[in-house]
Amino acid sequence: MQIIARETLIGKRIAKLDAPEKASGKTRYIHDLDLPGQLYGKILRSGRVHAKILRIDTSKAKALPGVHAVITAADVPWQRPIGVARDHLPLKTDRVRSPRDEIAAVAAQSEEIAQAALRLIEVEYEDLPVLTDPLDALAPDAPLIHPEPHGADGGTEHLKPGAPVAYSGRPDNLAMTFDYEQGDVARGEADSDLVVEDTFRLHYVTHCCMGVSGIIAEFDSSGNLTMYSNTQVPFLHKREFAEILGMDPARIRIIQPPIGGGFGSKLDIYPFEPICVFLARATGRPVKLVFSREEEFLASPTRQPVILKLRSGCRRDGTLTFRAVETIHDNGAYTSWGATTPFVMMQTVSSLYRVPHCSYHTKAVYTNNPYAGSFRGYGNLQATFAVESHMDRMADALGIDPLEFRLKNAQDPGEVTPQGMQFKTCGLKECLKSAAELGDYQAKRRAYAALQAEPGRFKRGVGLASMLHVGGGAKIYPSDGCGTILKMDDFGAVTLITGASEIGQGSETVLAQLVCEELGLPLSAVRVVNNDTEITPWDVGVHASRTTFIGGNSAIGAARKARAKILDAAAKQTGLPAQALDLRAGQIVEERSGNPLLSLAKLIRSLHFSDKAELVMTTHYYEPPSHHQDRQFKGDVSAAYAWASQVVEVEVDTETGAVRLLKVSGAHDVGRVLNRLGIEGQIEGGIVMGQGYALTEELIVEQGRIRNPAFRDYKLVTAPEIPEIAVRFVETLDGEGPQGAKGVGEAPAICIAAATANAIENATGVRILALPFTPEKVYRALREER
Amino acid sequence: MAEIERVLAPASLDEAAEALAAGEATLLAGGTDLMPASHAGKVRFAPMLINLRRIAELSGIAVEDGELRIGTLVTIAELLGDEAVRERCPILAEAADHFASPQIRNAATIGGNLCNASPAGDMLVPLLAAGARVELASKPDGTLVRRVLPLEEFLVGPGRTRRRPDELLATVRVPAAAPDAIWRFFKSGTRPALDISAVSIGLLARKAGNALHEVRIALGAVAPTVVRARAAEATLEGRVLNPETMEAAACAARDEVHPISDVRASAWYRKELIHNMLRRMLSDVAET
Question: Are A294 and B39 inside 8 Å of each other by CB?
Fold first, then answer.
C-alpha cells in the first residue's frame, strides 16, 4: 500500500488561480459585459470650478433620436446625499463646487448618441469666488463651499416639497477635525535636548487602476435592483445604496465582475453609481456607465493631499521625547474617505516608535479642489514621510547612526502603546537590521556622505525608513468579520463561498490554499465563489490589508468544521479515533503511518446516500479579537500589526535633478509567507507604487482644474525605471493570523517616499520636504542650497 | 466635431494628391497623434478622411545623391533599425531610440511627427540639426508637382506648417553626415521612456582637432517650433573646445531661448537644462 506523506502548500510559489484567464485576455471585466436591451449612460459635468446653476435645458437632448432619458436633479427630487459626511448629492441642484460636478445624465442606445446628447444640454451658470488653497478657506471671511441652505446665497426652493435634506451645510469650511493627545507634549518638549520642526507638503496622486470605473444597473419587473459593480465593499454598499435610493436593502443585489484594480478607490460610492441607477429606473432598461480614461482622472478620487507640520524631540542619548503634528487636509469639494486618513496617520505618529508624549491635530478643509478617497496606505505614506524624515534629521543632529537611532526607539513584541495598540508579535527590529544588511546601509551611508562635497555630476545615497500598519483587519465598522460557506460535492471537490472580494490582490488563491491545507486537497479541487451578495455571506470589504487575515481565518474555520465532520464519520467507519486520522491527497489516512484507509469522495458519498442523508457543508463567521477605538482614538483596532523597513539607494543627477532608484532592499514582517509568488508580486507592486508617489506621479491641480488628466502627462513609473528589488520576509508567526500570517497589502508602498527623501539627503546634503521628487523640484532644491 | 463623410484609402501618391485637390481632408498615417487628439476633442475632422497607409511609394528608405530619402510613412521603429540611417544620420537613429515606447514606434511615422509640428516632437530636433528638407507633393492642375522646403521653413508654429491643404508630405531628405561629423542628442523628461520632452537638444558639427566647424544646434520644447541656437552656434564656430568656449556656448543658448512654463517644466528649469546639457554634450565631445 502507498504511504501518503503530509504535504503543505504554505510558503510555496503558487500562480494565481485567475492568472490563465487574465494572461490570455479571456477575463470578462465590466467593460466586456453587455445585457440584452442595455442602454449606455453618460454624465454631463460642470466644467466650472465654483458656480451657481441658473438654468438647465435638456429639451434638445431629449429630442435626439436614440435618447431614452435625460435626467437632472429636478427629475430625482428624492435623491439623497452620498459620501462619508453625506455632503454630496449625486446630481447637483443649485450649485457646482468643482469641474467634475454632475449636472445631468443621459441614457441612449449607443455611447455616441449619449455623447452627442450631452452636447445638446444647455446650462447657464453664474461663477462664484473660487477657493483652491485650504489655508485661504480657513480665513474667517472665506466664501463657503457648503453654505447652510438658509445662508446668504442659499435657498432651498430647488428641493421639491417633501425631499429629504439629510445634509444641512456648514457655517465654515471645516469638513472634519481630528484631535488626539497622549502624555503631555509640553513636558516632553521640556525634557528634550533637541527639537526639530518642519512643514511637509504631500501632493495629489491617483490610483490609475487599469480597469476604469464602471457599473451596470438593472431593475427587474418586481423592482429588484441588480448592480454589476467594481466595488471593494459590496455589503456596505448594499446597505448604503438602499439608504440613498430609499429602497429595501433586500431588493438590492451586487454582482462584482472581475475587478481591474482597486487600491482603495472603490471603497466609497461615487455619484456615477446612483446616477446610473436613476437612469435604469427612468428607462426601465439595463444601463451601463463606464468612464473614459480622462473621466477616470477627472472624477475618481485621489490620495489625500496634506500640509503636515511636525515637531519632534529627543534627548541627547537618542531617546524620543515627544511628537506634535498639525495637519491641514485639503478636503476638496466633498468628503470621502481621504478626510478620515488621520485614523491611520496618528498610529504612525504615536506608535511606529516609542514616544511618550504625542499630539495630533487635523483640520480637513473644504475647497473647490478634487476630493480624496481611500488609497493603499490610507494616510500612512504621508505620515511616514514626515516621521521618518525627522528620524534621520534627529539622528544626524545628534551624531548617531540612523539605524542605531531607530533601533533604540523601536517597538518590541509585547508592547502596549499609549494609543492602546498591542503588539503581540513585532518584527520591527529584525526588519530594520535585515533591510540594513540587505542594502549595505551603514557602510554605504558613510561612504556616500563623505563624497557629497566631491565634484561630479552623479551623487549616490542610501536612505532607510520603516512603517507600521494594521495587519489583522481594522475594527472601524460594527463588525470587522467575514463569513464563509464551504460545500463539498460527492466527488470530494470544494466550493468555497466567501464574502471576501478579489480585486487582483490574490485572495482567491490564498483562501483556496488555506482550505486545501485543512482538507488535504490539491488546489485544483477548490473553486472560489466570491462575487455576488445574493450568494456570499457578509464581509466588511477589501480594505485595511485585511482579506488574507480575516477571510483566511473565516475559510479555515469553515474547513476545520468540514474536516471534523469527515474525520468523525471516518472514525465510525474505520473504528479508529478521529485524532488518529488525517486527510491527505483526497484520502483518509492513518495520521502516524500515512496508510490510506478510505477515499474522501467515497466517504462523502456514503454520508450523502445513507439513511441520514447528510451533506458536508459548513459555515463559519470570523470576527477578529480587536476593539473599536474610544472617542479619544485609543484602542487595539487590529488583531495584528505589520512592520517593514526599506533601504532605498538612489543616484541623483546634479545637472538635471533627475533621481534614479538603483535598489530597494526591504524586510517585511508578514507573520508568515502563505503564497511566496503572490506576496513577492504584491510587495514588488507596492514598491513601484511607492516609487511613483515619490518620484514621478502628480495630479497637477491649478485653480481647481486638473491639468494632466491623461497618462501622457500623469507619469506612472514604467518598466525601465523599476529598480533592483530585494526582499526578505521576517516570519513572526502571529498567533491569531491564518497559519501565522498578517496582512501585507498596503505595507510595501508606505515607506518608499520617506526612504527616498533620506537617500537624496545622503547623496546631496539637501533635504526636500515636499513630494514628488521630480527632476525640476530636486534641481531647484540643489540650486537653492548652493 | 464635424462628421466624417468619406474615408479614402488611396493606393498611390498620385491618387492621394488627386483626392486632396478635390477638397479638404484629414490625413491619417500612424494615428498616434490624431487618435488621442480626436479623443480629447481637439481635432476638427474634415469631411474626408484619407488613410495614407496603403501608399507603397511613401514607404522605404533610400540613398540618392548622397542624401537619405525617407518616405513619409517610415515608422520610427524602421528608422531605428535601418543601417543607412545609422550610418548617414546617426543622430536620427539616436533620437528614434528615445521616441515614446516600442508600441508607438511601430505605428508612428516620420511624416506624421513632422506634420504634427509639436515643438517637443522627437524627430524635429535631429532633423533640424541635420539640415533636413521636406518634399511636398500636390496635383493642382492634374499633374503631380513636388516642391522642396528646408525643415526650418516648413515649420511655422505649434501644429502649424507650410503644407498647403492640397499637399502631402511625401519624402524627408537628409544630407549624409560628413565623415568627421560629431553628433549628440539629449532629451529630458520625468522618466527615461514614454515621455514628452521638457527640453531636447541636437548637436551636429564637424570636428577637426579639438575645433568645431559647421556647428548646428537644434533645441526642442523651448519655443513655438524647434529652433536653431544660432548665437550658441556662432560662439562655437571654428573655436577649440575648452571650458571657456563651452560655457560661453551654453550661456548663449540659455539666453537666446524664451520658453514657456507648462505642466512639464517651468521656463527657468528649461533654460537651466539647455545650459547644463549643452555644456555636458560639448564636454563629452571634447573628451572623445
Answer: yes
